[in-house]
Predict the structure.
Amino acid sequence: MLHTLRSEDVQPLWKLIPISFTLIWITSSVGARSRMLWCQIFADVMNVEIKQVADPIYANACGAAVGLGEIKFADIPAMIQFRRVYQPKFANRAVYDRGFENFQLIYKQMKNVYRRLNQ
């Protein structure tokens, strides 16, 4: 488990925002089988229910309508339909947890090398 001071807790979240938008774009633009796989991976890794939007373009349009003042943000859930809901699978989570442990070991060993390479 990674430990941080409270002041450090929020900063990494801002760095994840571009990644999350990229992942949303990937999951909406790849084939159906790949979308299903990515949604299940997200559910397993984050240990949350993932709802796959039936029509992602329509969901984006709803967001734009909020920005234009045509609808309220609270109106969106009633307007969106979901194709499928993915529940976290405990067995899959164990696989990802082991992989993350290995990632942490590699990160600790390589972080100084990457820092030097990026100077």
